[in-house]
Design goal:
Order of helices and strands: HEEHHHHHHHEH
CATH topology: Methane Monooxygenase Hydroxylase, Chain G, domain 1
Mean pLDDT: 84
Largest sheet: 3 strands, antiparallel
Number of helices: 9
Number of strands: 3
Radius of gyration: 16 Å
Structural class: mainly alpha
Low-confidence stretches: none
CATH architecture: Up-down Bundle
Number of domains: 1
Helix content: 55-70%
Distance between the termini: 19 Å
Oligomer: single chain
């Protein structure tokens, strides 16, 4: 049930934050125990083109900051669902921030990676949740561990609050997912809307 809760957390957060949930599964893959996909809402090209990653995050266009925050919230929601709904110590907060900072410190993002993180409309990368959060944190806050860690704490606290507030929806989705193994995006939406 842990994996179903985790993936349901991702799918729920995508739906809650205005993205379009895609297929979700608890069938293990080469680097993960399950996956949840969603289609990202478009950000105006002019806003993407206006991003200068050397500038502070708050100087970026609001639409781009919103998109980065939403993608981070969706990514953190898997761990948040595990922690909030299983009532066991999870990977949110300090452990997650430490792991993301460790990954981010390993190497800088290339210009191509920056563009991919900003412009990719679907979450089809093979990155793990930790790697995805590290990329988003590094993109938005560079190698500033204090600012990056504070941002990640905000993201994980928001994800946990969102999951806790709508626990019945997330639990129902996780139960159906655990029972069926795989759900289409349409099925995810139907389950979330009927709860």
């Amino acid at each position: 049930m842990r994996v179903a809760l985790h993936e349901a957390g991702h799918s729920f957060a995508a739906w809650r934050f205005g993205q379009i949930p895609g297929p979700v599964t608890v069938v293990p893959g080469p680097r993960w125990a399950g996956t949840a996909h969603h289609e990202r809402q478009p950000v105006p090209v002019a806003d993407l083109d206006a991003v200068d990653v050397s500038m502070p995050y708050l100087a970026w266009p609001a639409a781009v900051r919103h998109d980065v925050d939403v993608q981070a919230l969706i990514t953190a929601a898997g761990y948040a669902a595990e922690e909030a709904l299983r009532r066991t110590p999870g990977r949110c907060g300090d452990p997650l921030a430490a792991r993301a900072a460790e990954l981010a410190a390993a190497r800088p993002l290339t210009a191509a990676e920056e563009r991919l993180v900003l412009a990719d409309r679907e979450d089809t990368t093979d990155a793990t949740d930790d790697e995805r959060l590290a990329s988003l944190m590094l993109l938005a806050h560079g190698h500033d561990p204090v600012t990056g860690s504070a941002w990640l704490h905000y993201i994980t606290a928001t994800a946990k609050a969102c999951i806790a507030r709508d626990a019945p929806r997330v639990l129902r989705l996780a139960g159906v997912l655990a029972n069926r193994g795989t759900l289409s995006g349409r099925a995810v939406i139907e389950i979330l809307e009927e709860t």
